[in-house]
Amino acid sequence: MLLSILAVSAMVLTGCQGAAAPQSSPQPVEEKKEEAVVEPAAEEESEPAAEAGADIDIPAGYHLVWADEFDGDCLSEDDWNYETHEVGWVNHELQEYVASDEYAYVRDGELVIRPVKIEKGGLTGYRSGRVNTQNKHDYKYGRFEARLKVPRGKGFLPAFWMMPKDEDYYGQWPKCGEIDIMEVLGDSTKVNYGTLHFGEPHKQSQGVYDLTKGDFADEYHVFAIEWEPGEIRWYCDGTQYHQENDWFTKVSGEEEKAYPAPFDQPFHVILNVAVGGDWPGDPDASTVFDEHACMYVDYVRIFQKDSYDENVEKPVKELSMRESDESGNFVHNSDFSESESLGDDDDWKFLLFNGGEGEATIGDNEIIITSTNAGTEEYSVQLVQPQIPMEQGCSYEFSFEAYAEEPRTIKPAITAPNVNWIRYFPDTPVDLTTDWQTFTFDVDMNDETDDSARIEFNMGKQNSTATVHIRNVKLIKK
Ligand SMILES: [Ca+2]
Ligand SMILES: [Ca+2]
After folding, report:
1. Bridge-partner residues for 412, per DSSP?
2. Which of 56, 72, 157, 327 has the most CB atoms within 10 Å of its CB?
3. Which residue ranges form the domains of the chain, and what is each CATH number?
4. 258-275 pLDDT, tens digit each
5. Of 69, 167, 178, 226, which residue is the catalytic one?
6. Distance from the CA of 338 to the center of ligand 2, in angstroms?
7. Does pTM top 0.85 for this prediction?
8. Rounded to an integer, what distance in angstroms lies between the CA atom of residue 15 and that of residue 20?
9. Is residue 370 within 8 Å of 399, Cβ to Cβ?
10. Interval 236-255 mean pLDDT
């Protein structure tokens, strides 16, 4: 997720002609030293042909509207802007985006975005490149495609994505919308995420493409979306892995804008490599800033159909709300009277993340959670039940019984995995003693009705791994 919180316009700074390394830091530049002075004459000749679409495979039903094959010897400022942003501008990212051909440059037919680690006065900093086509190539609808190879290493987050030409048209993020075509975490380079952000409150729709063979950091792959009025489809190497047609935008307190807003305005393309921050986590001792830290973009191509029919209607959302049992309880296997798999998505599920270690067993009408390592996050040791129905405007009583073998804290919550993990019932510390106690909470559901909320018991990072016993978990509409 790439929050774009401020409307900072792109700044055009360096030019190719001024490419005498404008702010060459004393940083060693390893193999990158050998400049890309590869037969400039031949390069110049090949460029117009490629730009004219000679070697470009045009998908059926489309025509080419713009492409950059990166065949020149510098990034064309007729087409691209360098964006500059300070450290921590969004998502607690660590890099400074600097307008310099040191961090985003064209070489050997590719755009290279190169994050660099800078040690200065005992402090570590990072610089990286971010370029976009805002006000130079903005398009409404089309097929947006790039062939690229991603960096490898903990803390890198490369992205090929799109933002509106005019972020103020529907209002600042997330109201304006955002389309992420490729995001691959540097420490998990077989998995690509394609994501749509929109709404107010923020909602997202994400598809995941797992590479069964190869690695996004070892070979080039083609990432694309096909965006039409009322539908966006995500592709990797020609395989569709996600689609979405249900979105909205509104200003808080006002009516929703007419569908298919906000995805009915021109968007531009962005390419960048972030370093650190909320999602990828920060670089660690294993992270190497060498040529494998770079993103290599062979091309960006944009195609459109001859016409698009914008007369589309918002799909009617079909909710699948779980029924309660005869006592009014929406929780399945509420009293742990049935044994069940704790590894599947049906009813109870036990999860471990980020160093959490432990196990859960059902028996004698209770569930027992033993942990040997509390992990680094509250959710590192977690018992959950998904598919919980929460209806807007309703009040619920959420209750359970619990004790621990030594006094300790756990944190129950009711969350929204499909609505950006908002909390219908916030993570609430509950102090367990060595005796059974009943805990009861009132939950008012003010958000939009959700058929897939999730009850959670978070037991990680509580300064204790004492064994927890839970029984009689209930959610009842009042
Ligand atoms: Ca190329
Ligand atoms: Ca289960």
Report:
1. 457
2. 157
3. 10-309 (2.60.120.200), 349-477 (2.60.120.260)
4. 999 999 999 999 999 999
5. 178
6. 10
7. no
8. 10
9. no
10. 94
The Cα–Cα gap between 423 and 234 comes to 29
Query: Among this protein's residues, is 219 annotated catalytic?
Result: no
* The pLDDT of residue 253: 85
CB 384 within 8 A of CB 414: no
Question: What would the two tokens of residue 422 be?
Answer: 């908002």
Mean pLDDT over 362-377 rounds to 96
Yes or no: say if 422 and 377 are a contact pair by the CB < 8 Å rule: no
DSSP letter at 375 equals -
Distance in Å, CA 72 to ligand 1 centroid: 9
Q: Measured between alpha carbons, how far is residue 49 from residues 40, 56, 153, 233 in Å?
A: 15, 10, 36, 30
Which amino acid would we find at residue 431? Answer: D
Give the separation between CA 254 and CA 380, rounded to whole angstroms: 39
- pLDDT tens readout for residues 140-167: 999 999 999 999 999 999 999 999 999 9
